[in-house]
What does this fold into?
Amino acid sequence: MNRLLLSFFITFLAGISTLLGMFPSFMHSKYKNKIIPLSLSFSSGVMLSISIFSLIIESFSYINYCFFLKIIIVLLFLNIGVILFVLIEKISSKFTNNNDLYKLGILSSFSLILHNIPEGILSFITMSTNLNLGFTLCLAIALHNIPEGISIAVPIYYSTKSHKKAFFYTFVSGFSELLGGIIAYLFLYKIMNFFFFSFLLGITAGIMIYLSVKELFPKSLSYGSKNISIFGLLFGFIFMFLFQCIFKL
It folds into this structure.
């Protein structure tokens, strides 16, 4: 297998690991009132951690201006992400029959597609230039894609009782990682630059933070399991924080 095909293949595997997040949907339905709030709050913690300790910091680092101007630009990107999410939320509500849980799954899928595209670009480029570093990076991405898959599969399955729908939306989110690799291969040198990358990371962070604070955690609390929700949020946040620290070391 030549380097190009290997880069595409490993990038695809890293993305498609989101499907492992479907595992909680196969657990016995009697645990539903624990699985749903725990999964939602855990996903909320994971998204907050990724946004704060990865996306925002990386978005900031890609801008070549003075310190205070960089802060203003990143904050602008975050707000654009929030506004974009609010618009998408309004549109999605017309197609989800007021099913909050199903809507959460769709919105999580969309936000993670935005998140996975730049990840796919990074994975593909790294694999293409440095195999050892590429494999390490893709393994890290694959592991942190699993809890992201949970945030899609669990709400969609328990709102529709359909493993096919849960599989479809989780698969699409993971497949977007490969889409990032394809974009990198076809267009990187034409349209990609550090400022664009910063913009993409910034709006994704804004979307994820809003989704976590406004939708995922409040929905988790609505199941009446406050202790489970708080535990899930803290565990997800700390888990992803430690994972990112280990990976950077």
Notes: The helical segments are 3-16, 32-61, 67-93, 100-129, 131-160, 163-191, 194-221, 226-248.
